[in-house]
Design brief:
With about 270 residues, the chain is an alpha/beta fold. It folds into two domains: about 210 residues, 3-Layer(aba) Sandwich (Rossmann fold), CATH 3.40.50.2000; about 40 residues, no CATH class. The chain is globular and about 60 Å long. The termini are far apart. About 35% of the residues are buried. Pfam families: Glyco_transf_4. One of its GO terms (molecular function) is glycosyltransferase activity. It is an enzyme of class 2 (transferase).
């Protein structure tokens, strides 16, 4: 699917990392697991942190995300309300369908190729997609119709998800990586949070400029405590002196072997 962003590689590289130098930004956000964009998951938290900071700096941001149902919020134990996105940031929900997943709340945005019309009054300078799925296809369509560059961020080591398919691991890895790389070759700039992701895409023919950029971290919330404070917290929660805290899900693609080994040796 051709992307209009290919006309702007020079202009985009001058923007610096991702889309932080843009005056007006559209961020198209979606992924399989989870896709509901409520503030409790890694990629979604990263997108929220990035958009809040852009808004704080005076940029105008529109986030397109799949529609979330009451069931999705109930699973998370949250009131049905949008996340606090801060100033100058708007969330627009698009029609989506439920898909099976380990979380039980994944949804896939159904692309129509016509939602770019919603952006005509907004007139974005840059479109930023965090997915190669439904919202990503909408992002490419919007970039082509509005003649603006699109930044594509690939958060997935897609070849590691072979365990969720009925296909052999080599077949799934080859087909999925070729498809994902073909998608990102329509972007003016590609980013990923780790070298392993860009290395995989390069091996399968990535031809667009790319850069490894870590996901943002809220350092007000996540910061080292003093030794004295850590000792107090360990006593309060009944933790031993040597404690490992892991906040991700236990899944093969997360490479949890070191956590599993630690738990088994306890």
């Amino acid at each position: 699917m051709p992307g209009g962003a290919g006309h702007h590689p020079g202009g985009l590289s001058a923007q610096g990392q991702r889309c932080r130098a843009a005056g007006r930004v559209t961020s198209c956000v979606s992924r399989y697991s989870p896709t509901v964009f409520i503030p409790s998951w890694g990629i979604q938290d990263s997108v929220l942190a990035e958009c809040r900071e852009l808004g704080r700096r005076g940029h105008q941001v529109v986030i397109f995300a799949p529609h979330a149902t009451a069931h999705d919020y109930k699973l998370m134990g949250l009131a049905r309300a949008e996340a606090d996105v801060g100033t100058n940031v708007e969330v627009r929900r698009l029609f989506s369908l439920p898909v099976p997943s380990s979380t039980g709340q994944s949804r896939l945005l159904v692309p129509t190729g016509r939602r770019w019309r919603q952006l005509l009054p907004f007139a974005p300078d840059i479109i930023h997609t965090h997915t190669f799925l439904g919202a990503g296809l909408e992002a490419l369509s919007a970039a082509r119709h509005l003649d603006v560059p699109v930044v594509g961020t690939n958060h997935w080591a897609i070849g590691e998800f072979c365990g969720y398919t009925p296909f052999s691991a080599p077949f799934f890895r080859d087909v999925s990586l070729r498809a994902v790389t073909r998608f990102y070759n329509h972007c003016a700039m590609v980013t990923a949070p780790s070298h392993s992701v860009t290395d995989e895409m390069c091996a399968f023919g990535l031809s667009r400029p790319y850069r490894v950029i870590s996901n943002p971290v809220d350092t007000d919330r996540f910061r080292p405590q003093t030794d004295a404070r850590r000792a107090v917290l360990k006593r309060a929660y009944g933790f031993s002196q040597s404690t490992i805290v892991y906040a991700g899900r236990l899944a093969d693609e997360k490479k949890n072997r070191c956590v599993d080994s630690f738990a088994a040796s306890d």
